[in-house]
């Protein structure tokens, strides 16, 4: 049974320095409020895992939370670069960042293997690319029936996975819909899991396209209204494309980045700190 | 782009507009297209708005048959889920739909391209100490491997058309004839490269990209000067038909909303 | 794009003697009307693939359509045995029946591999059981990262797969909901596919728990109202548990079986022949 | 069953009812249980109707947390989907939920059982030329392999409690201590076998099933006579508490609707 707790307490209990942590959400339902709480609690040496680091990891990397990034596409979608990610990789600012690089298909299948209790997954991928030279977690495997050679990737089993969903009921069952990406796999692959939600309701009325996570399959649920902003929550609010575009300017420069994070995230009265308030 | 400026000055459209329109024309009605974000998404949605309304767009976010009324900024915008025939998970879109070769066309962009239409979207310079860190692979390696055919859209200049890629992110024809078969890549590989200068297709014999068409206002000299290798030019070089008024109007409507 | 055709024409075009054919539906949405059309068209030497042969394959086996059965559980759920299946296995009546036996997990993963364009699937299964001795399509495989030994099963790629769904639209897009079992995988794994539906509508209104198959992923759609009976169609009609219980008596004896099939299936005016009428 | 008749004659309930009630009592509140059809489904739903209303029932048809008001005839009845917390696909229930060891209890029936609680549900006699062809494996091999613990419900007589299985469909403790570890089976194996005579548990040292409790009216001699091997009996043999009025009433309500 999942515990209903505040976002502050959930992060304090479930996220530890040095953890391998996945915070998933494919463009949609990105758990920004939880990431901001991790930043406020000054977690360090995290191995951050995500298909698309997006702004959420650009912020955590720039604030020095991460020592390693496992990912497959590190850009600001439709806008350009992730400058904090770039600065960490090329200049080691604020701390050096090791990268482990895959394709989306490889990352997705690593979560699938993790969720399935298997040590590896098989796919048609990577062959002929330089990723096979640079990434140690890619291997070849031979079909025992046909002799065909394919690619294997190891299971991804984070110490903790964090996702954002639209709703939970009071028993802690989770309901999300719209683009659900790899969130179910990320949660089921993890040793510990936290789900932030827009609202907690008495009854989860069925919704087309819904994905349900039973309460006994997760550890904690925390209320975090607007908790995906500037990403979006289908049926609640739209993606703040304007902010994704502004991030290009905010993040390009170290000082403007630090100033913005200090004003909006580190100070509890911050714009989307409201999510934290509501949950604590 | 200089080409953009000059073309824009000479004609009633920019070289980028010509490139996007020429790319859209390549998308046949009734086919399915795995769409990368950026230029491919713009061209694919232009095709839907003009000659191929039944083009099935597949986005790696899990949207099958998305029919956005406006251009999505990201591949996971809500408008894609709202208008899709089906929304599925990311593992499913790669494992059940892309990997088996169900998708007709894989439509990709590139930061660097070589003569065999291999693509780099990972780093400029050395991998360990890059001069420019690019976003990386995303869905591209498997899109390039498994779609029935590939279409690539890229601005053509000496920085993008290089003799040797700094990093092979996605495989076109590898090192030439036989490479795809040896690697076990089931798709037929990139069949068309559309640039702001013209259209290139792989030579049937040696798989090397060959200039087969020039956009209005572009020249062979310009195309050669914009490539980091001795660019092959087809004997039966054709001229790209200029944008129609409808194509320009639809494209501008898409990109300004 | 899927063709909208009559059930008669769909079976005539898509199902050939000697085909490997999967007709899936896990208790729910079992495509009985299509099976009856296959029986009427006197198909022979079929390799029938299904997790649970159920009454649908008991009928086809008893009518001599099959030379081989690939399955994982061959009983009449909650009632007892499949007598025609037993008679074919133990006495070769009406024709000898070869069996290839798996577990549900193995069969499900064979379809997953088939749908994924992979030659095999990996699972934790079969180890220590006699299935590994009797079934050639089970092998061991070693994890290239951990060295752990696991089980591999080959992809199942039927020549033709047939399922029943609640609805299709006029473009041939398919919508089903409730227990959807392995139907998506069975269809995507097949070289050819046929979907029978309760009704064809102008627009597929979204339904919670729905699974959608785009028209371009299947070959043919045929209207077959009541086409799952005595199985059920969620939202349309319930499972005819009474018939499943009567089948115990009908099928126990060769003559009573043959008489029942002749009266109810072979004659076009048969009880559920209505499905065929409506579709042709 | 003779035991059924005699017990039924002597007491206010049948041996099957006692067996089902004793099995239901084994299911702890707040746990998850992967339920086979038949006797396990009846006992699991009785547990929900009595002491464990929050027992999460998992059916291989893809129903997680099903809460049927009446007994399903099959594991795929509509009532299971209508009342489930979530309905998922069959590949998912086995790959994402059973295989990783997320399910606490695997609840199985058996046609034959041996002293190490290995199960046969495939054939009686030779595999190629069986005297009785049974349904086969279904979900059982992986349920027995991957659930945290196993519970088996089976009527006890010389035909079911055999010295040697005709076919090993699902593994309990294999050939004894260390077998599960050698085979890489992550679950802890069958911890309880409930029959119409009593309750058996594996010996901590040698894994062999040992009679630990007798149902009212049953005797050690009857238990020994009903086993095809020299049956071990615990020194601290206990008596099963008789069915309560509520247990009998709930069970009969379930099985008659």
Q: Can you tell me about this structure?
A:
The complex is a heterotetramer, with 2 copies of chain A (280 residues) and 2 copies of chain B (257 residues). Chain A is α/β, with parallel strands linked by helices and 280 residues long. Chain A is 32% helix and 25% strand. Chain A has helices at residues 7-14, 32-40, 54-62, 83-91, 104-115, 131-134, 183-189, 241-252, 254-266, 274-279, and strands spanning 3-5, 20-23, 46-49, 66-71, 75-76, 80-81, 98-101, 120-123, 139-142, 149-154, 160-169, 174-176, 192-201, 211-213, 220-223. In chain A, strands 1, 2, 3, 4, 7, 11, 12, 13, 14 and 15 form a 10-stranded mixed beta sheet that branches. In chain A, helix 3 packs across helix 4 and helix 5 (104-115) crosses helix 7. The longest helix of chain A is centred in the C-terminal third of the chain and has 13 residues, at 254-266. Chain A is globular, with a radius of gyration of 18 Å. Mean pLDDT of chain A is 95; it is low at 270-280. Chain B has 257 residues and is an alpha/beta fold. In chain B, 30% of the residues lie in helices and 23% in strands. In chain B, helix 2 (15-25) packs across helix 3 and helix 3 crosses helix 9. Classes of the chains: A alpha/beta (280), B alpha/beta (257). Chains in contact: A-B, A-C, A-D, B-C, C-D. Chains A and B meet through helix 4 and helix 5 of A and helix 4, helix 5, strand 9 and helix 6 of B.
Task: Give the secondary structure arrangement, pairings included.
The complex is a heterotetramer, with two copies of chain A (about 280 residues) and two copies of chain B (about 260 residues).
Chain A lengths: L2 E3 L1 H8 L5 E4 L8 H9 L5 E4 L4 H9 L3 E6 L3 E2 L3 E2 L1 H9 L6 E4 L2 H12 L4 E4 L7 H4 L4 E4 L6 E6 L5 E10 L4 E3 L6 H7 L2 E10 L9 E3 L6 E4 L17 H12 L1 H13 L7 H6 L1
Parallel strand pairs in A: 1-15, 2-3, 2-11, 3-4, 4-7, 11-13, 13-15
Antiparallel strand pairs in A: 5-6, 8-10, 9-10, 11-12, 12-14
Helix pairs in contact in A: 1-2, 2-3, 3-4, 5-7, 8-9
Chain B lengths: L1 H9 L4 H11 L6 E4 L3 H11 L6 E4 L3 E4 L11 H6 L2 E2 L2 H9 L6 E5 L2 E2 L5 E2 L2 E3 L4 E4 L6 H7 L2 E5 L25 H5 L6 E5 L3 E5 L6 E6 L5 H6 L6 E8 L5 H12 L1
Helix pairs in contact in B: 2-3, 3-9
């Amino acid at each position: 049974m999942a515990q209903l707790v505040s976002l502050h307490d959930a992060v304090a209990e479930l996220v530890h320095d040095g953890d391998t942590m996945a915070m998933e959400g494919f463009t949609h339902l990105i758990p920004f409020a939880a990431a901001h709480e991790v930043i406020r609690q000054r977690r360090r040496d995290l191995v951050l895992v995500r298909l698309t680091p997006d702004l959420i990891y650009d912020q955590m990397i720039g604030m020095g939370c991460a020592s390693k990034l496992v990912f497959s596409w590190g850009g600001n979608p439709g806008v350009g670069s992730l400058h904090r990610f770039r600065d960490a990789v090329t200049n080691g600012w604020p701390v050096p960042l090791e990268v482990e690089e895959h394709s989306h298909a490889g990352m997705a299948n690593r979560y699938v293997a993790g969720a399935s209790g298997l040590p590896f997954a098989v796919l048609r991928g990577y062959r002929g690319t330089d990723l096979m030279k640079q990434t140690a977690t890619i291997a070849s495997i031979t079909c025992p029936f046909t002799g065909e050679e394919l690619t294997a990737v190891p299971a991804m089993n984070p110490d903790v996975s964090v996702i954002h969903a639209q709703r939970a009921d009071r028993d802690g069952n989770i309901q999300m819909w719209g683009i659900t990406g790899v969130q179910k796999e990320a949660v089921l692959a993890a040793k510990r899991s936290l789900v932030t939600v827009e609202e907690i309701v008495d009854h989860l009325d069925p919704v087309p396209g819904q994905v349900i996570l039973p309460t006994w399959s997760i550890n904690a649920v925390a209320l975090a209204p607007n908790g995906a902003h500037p990403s979006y929550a289908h049926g609640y609010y739209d993606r703040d494309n304007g902010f994704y575009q502004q991030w290009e300017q905010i993040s390009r420069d170290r000082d403007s980045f630090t100033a913005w994070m200090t004003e909006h995230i580190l100070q509890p009265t911050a714009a989307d700190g409201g999510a934290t308030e509501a949950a604590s | 782009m200089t080409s953009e400026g000059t073309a824009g000055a000479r004609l009633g459209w920019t070289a980028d507009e010509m490139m996007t329109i020429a790319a859209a024309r390549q998308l046949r009605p009734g086919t399915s297209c795995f769409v990368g974000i950026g230029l491919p998404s713009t061209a694919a949605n232009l095709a839907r708005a003009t000659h191929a309304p039944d083009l099935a767009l597949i986005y790696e976010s899990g949207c099958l048959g998305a029919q956005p009324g406006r251009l999505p900024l990201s591949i996971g915008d809500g408008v894609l889920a709202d208008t899709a025939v089906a929304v599925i998970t990311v593992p499913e879109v790669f494992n059940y739909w892309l990997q088996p070769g169900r998708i007709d066309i894989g439509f990709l962009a590139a930061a660097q391209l070589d003569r065999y239409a291999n693509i780099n979207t990972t780093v400029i310079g050395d991998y360990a100490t890059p001069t420019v860190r690019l976003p990386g692979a995303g869905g591209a390696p498997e899109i390039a491997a498994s779609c029935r055919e590939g279409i690539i859209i890229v601005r053509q200049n000496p920085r993008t058309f290089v003799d040797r890629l700094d990093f092979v992110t996605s495989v076109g024809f590898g090192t030439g004839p036989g490479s795809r078969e040896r690697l076990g890549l089931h798709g037929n590989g990139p069949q068309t490269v559309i640039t702001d200068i013209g259209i290139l297709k792989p030579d049937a014999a040696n798989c090397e990209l060959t200039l087969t068409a020039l956009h209005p206002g572009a020249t062979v000299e310009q195309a050669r000067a914009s490539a980091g290798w001795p660019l092959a030019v087809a004997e039966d070089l054709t001229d790209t038909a200029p944008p129609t008024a409808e194509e320009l109007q639809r494209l501008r409507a898409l990109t300004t909303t």
